[in-house]
């Protein structure tokens, strides 16, 4: 059984896409490791990357080409200063060479050496092959698959066997919601308490505390940047940033200088009923505008859906509970991570495999479950909340206009957040015994729906809004 940590589900990275940016970036890093392990790193004189399927069809809009170049250059998506990214890419284009692993120059012409192949590899919709040469002689090639949420696997290793060690150490291995609920009952624990026990088996308590707060602070900073940045998003669609205008209208005139002070300021702002929806939408818009501009975000569970969880957690902090602090933030993230991992194991979090239900739908379910626990829900009610949120995203297609993670993606995060809040409220008023659809059933239904969905609606930009809207009109 695959044991997935909360930090696998909530990864710090760079936008705009977890499957098309973060995954290929990580694949490039893994390829570098393979070259070093085989002692052929120093022999490489040139290299080529073949992108297949969805990585090819929406790769330019999703910055897949930039991601592989950054990964091969030795930049870490978690830590590289985002303001350095354009400089690294400009240097590769101007010099027609790439500093492999940040140390060794190799001949590299992005226009010729990154090949966009329209065909799909049989194993997964997001395939990529790295090939290196010494002179005319091919040294080595390796194929990776980006399976959503920044996860990367090899065909011969589909369950990511590198994590075998971690698998064996979780005291409460969970594949399905029924198992999660059984452990909670048996141990008399909440979902977050159970997740904490699992995390403690692989990390110190101090590390869990610090990393969860690092995740949260990245989310908070992302919302802060999005709410304070105006202008047009890159990519050619001429999408105007909206979080700035909405935020400007909503905020009072209390002073602040940092994201943390900003949060406290909003808490002091009187929020009228009508404005609640606007605030939640503003937080979600802010994250996904930062994501669309290749900013730093937390994959939750993907980059395209990165705004839902921060927006719902902000809702809790700003509207529901002004006294909440680190404890509640950590609790929220742990429940969200667990719900997300159940969807990953039982279905998919890849839009290339399941459409947008796998991104916004899953993020909404994660947020709904987490909010429900913070608002006093039992473990059973938490799973009811997650189920309700997904139930009303079933069949949602992925059809990004121009292959960019902008329309409908940015706005769709606001919808996922609002549905999550509603789902949590509905679940709190529900006796789980009367709930007709268990969470595991909706996970399975999502997967069956994903398999039936036409490829046009799976992150290919070959159907839906992506073909209905004429790019020249934008
Ligand atoms: S439509 Fe949904 S799944 Fe597709 S790129 Fe946008 S947010 Fe991601």
TrEMBL record:
Query: What does the UniProt keyword field contain?
Result: 4Fe-4S, Gluconeogenesis, Iron, Iron-sulfur, Lyase, Metal-binding
Q: Does the keyword Repressor apply?
A: no
Pathway(s) of this molecule: Carbohydrate biosynthesis; gluconeogenesis
Q: What class of enzyme is it?
A: lyase
Q: Which residues form the Serine dehydratase-like alpha subunit domain?
A: 186-466
Pfam families cross-referenced by the UniProt entry:
SDH_alpha, SDH_beta
Q: Does the keyword 4Fe-4S apply?
A: yes
A Gene Ontology molecular-function term?
4 iron, 4 sulfur cluster binding
Family recorded in the similarity comment: Belongs to the iron-sulfur dependent L-serine dehydratase family.
Q: What is this protein called?
A: L-serine dehydratase
Q: Report the source organism.
A: Myroides odoratimimus CIP 101113
């Amino acid at each position: 059984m695959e044991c997935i940590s909360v930090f696998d589900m909530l990864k710090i990275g760079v936008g705009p896409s977890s499957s098309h940016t973060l995954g290929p970036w990580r694949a490039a890093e893994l390829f570098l490791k393979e070259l070093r392990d085989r002692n052929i790193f120093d022999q490489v004189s040139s290299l080529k990357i073949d992108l297949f399927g969805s990585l090819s069809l929406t790769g330019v809009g999703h910055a897949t080409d930039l991601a592989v170049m950054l990964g091969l250059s030795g930049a870490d998506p978690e830590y590289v200063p985002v303001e350095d990214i354009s400089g690294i890419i400009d240097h590769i284009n101007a010099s027609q060479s790439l500093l492999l692993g940040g140390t060794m120059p190799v001949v590299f012409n992005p226009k010729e050496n990154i090949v966009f192949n329209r065909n799909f590899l049989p194993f997964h919709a997001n395939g990529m092959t790295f090939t290196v040469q010494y002179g005319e002689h091919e040294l080595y090639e390796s194929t990776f698959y980006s399976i959503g949420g920044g996860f990367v696997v090899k065909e011969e290793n589909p369950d990511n066997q590198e994590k075998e060690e971690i698998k064996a150490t979780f005291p409460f291995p969970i594949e399905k919601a029924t198992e999660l609920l059984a452990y909670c009952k048996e141990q008399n624990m909440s979902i977050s308490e159970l997740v904490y026990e699992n995390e403690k088996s692989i990390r110190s308590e101090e590390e869990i505390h610090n990393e969860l707060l690092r995740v949260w602070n990245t989310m908070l900073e992302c919302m802060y940047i999005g709410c304070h940045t105006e202008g047009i998003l890159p990519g050619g669609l001429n999408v105007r940033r909206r979080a700035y205008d909405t935020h400007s209208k909503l905020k009072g005139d209390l002073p602040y200088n940092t994201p943390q002070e900003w949060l406290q300021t909003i808490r002091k702002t009187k929020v009228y009923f009508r404005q609640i929806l606007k605030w939640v939408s503003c937080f979600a818009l802010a994250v996904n505008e930062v994501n669309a501009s290749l900013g730093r975000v937390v994959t939750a569970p993907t980059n395209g859906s990165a705004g839902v969880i921060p927006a719902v957690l902000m809702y809790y902090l700003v509207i529901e509970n002004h006294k909440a602090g680190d404890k509640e933030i950590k609790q929220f993230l742990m429940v969200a991570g667990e719900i997300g991992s159940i969807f990953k194991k039982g279905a998919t979090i890849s839009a290339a495999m399941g459409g947008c239900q796998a991104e916004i739908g899953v993020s909404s379910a994660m947020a709904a479950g987490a909010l429900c626990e913070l608002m006093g829900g039992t473990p059973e009610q938490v799973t009811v909340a997650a189920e309700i949120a997904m139930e009303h995203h079933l069949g949602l297609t992925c059809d990004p206009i121009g292959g960019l993670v902008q329309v409908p993606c940015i706005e769709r995060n606001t919808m996922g957040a609002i549905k999550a809040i509603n789902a949590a409220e509905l679940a709190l008023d529900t006796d789980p015994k009367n709930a007709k659809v268990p969470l595991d059933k909706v996970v399975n239904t999502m997967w069956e729906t994903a398999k039936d969905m036409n490829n046009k609606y799976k992150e290919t930009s070959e159907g839906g809004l992506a073909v209905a809207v004429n790019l020249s009109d934008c």
